[in-house]
Design a protein that fits this description.
Blueprint (H helix, E strand, L loop, with lengths): L2 H17 L13 H13 L3 H10 L20 H7 L3 H18 L19 E2 H18 L2 H18 L10 E2 L13 H15 L6 H21 L20 H16 L6 H14 L35 H15 L1
Antiparallel strand pairs: 1-2
Helix pairs in contact: 1-12, 2-12, 5-6, 6-7, 6-8, 8-9, 8-10, 10-11, 10-12
Amino acid sequence: MTKQEEAVVLADKIARNFTNRTIVGSDRYGNNYENELAYEALLSLRLYINTIERYMQSEGMLDVNTAKTWKFQLFHDIAYPWFEYKNQLQDFKAPYVQVTDNWINEVVRRESGTITYYGPQPLLGSLIDMLQAYMLRLCRTAQLTNDQSYAEEAVNQYRLYRTELRNEISGCFHQGKGWLENDTLSPSPWSRGQGWIVHGLVHCLTLVECWPNLHDELLCYLNELLSDLVKLQTESGFWHQLIDRPNESYPDTSGSALIFEAIQISLNKNYITGEKYSIAADKAWNILKQQIDDEGFVDQACNGPGTIWEIEPWLNTKAPKGEPHGIFAMLFACRAILQ
């Protein structure tokens, strides 16, 4: 089979598995982000549209006059792509922009200027998982309103996070800062954390094309991080849970799939060039497709470490089969091939 044919078959297997079972993962705040990211990926693949609509109806998300609070959308945003698919973005514009404005104005910021995670922890720290959703929402709002200031805020947050969290040796981002005593960095970069960032960057780029300076700056950041990530890919094709410590941690399908997605889309759009990227993409896809069994379960997807308070639990801890983060990550990987 061609790579495209493989992606169609695998996406269908994963989608059937996902839509036929209940995914555990929602938190006490009603944040169904694993589910909604899977639905967003399915929407982009034009699969199970009726199932997505039933879910959104159950969550009260089909009314174009209302939008969920940003506090329930820290890692995802299914409503925008849904109303985009339905050609109803202009009807949804007012509540969507209002929630975006609320996030900008209400979020707590560290002294450095980085936005902090909203959650149950008593401490307030930066978190790269959230950065990508914040950036993507602001860039969507910028395009919807033709207001450059939203895109500028998105790019500025990346600058601040890059200054605060980027490891100068590996080029990877630590998970966050402000969660540990003495305001130290989270102790290790993590694979899906890097995947989150490049997922956000590659999808933001198409939204800011009308502002060349911002587009070019984001493109430089994407090239920088992808170049560093390719160096950390193992011979198997995987990136590992603790991405800069592959000999001490297991492979991670979810992080690898999101990194692959960004590389593949970037190659498709000529954001990056060079044989090293096409080789990296082929190696990643060849191992990722082996992680889907006949029932559509995704293997080797790391469960969430949160802010990574310590690295010991993530040393040589094998990821469980069927972990929810692997579902949306692999669906996005399939979509990147079929785009």
